[in-house]
Amino acid sequence: MIFKNIPNEAIKLSDLIEIEDKQIVSSNLFDSNDINITVFSFADLENISEESYSGETLFYVIQGNCFIKIGEEKITLAEGDIYKLAKETLHEVHALEPFKMLQISLK
Question: Per the confidence metrics, is the pTM higher than 0.90?
Answer without folding.
Answer: yes
